[in-house]
Protein: Ferrous iron transport protein A
Amino acid sequence: MQALSKAKAGESYTIKWMFGVPEVLEFMRSHQIEAGSTIRVIQRCTDSLIIGTRDTRIAIGNEVAERIQV
Structure:
């Protein structure tokens, strides 16, 4: 298991667990990003990631990605 912030671009991962601010978690769940979901790291930037699942793409900061284990 590793933090999502350490994941490589272009790879797919299954989310094992995630924690953080309830509002952020609820936003992610509303876009089908939750424990058990398979996501793809589309692009890594210096302080953020673009991730996708099915037809949804979102950008998250490294501080959020640190709280997601894949």
About this structure: The first strand starts at residue 12 and ends at 14. The beta strands are 12-14, 17-18, 38-44, 48-53, 56-61, 68-69. Residues 5 and 26 are 20 Å apart (CA to CA). DSSP finds two helices and six strands in the chain.
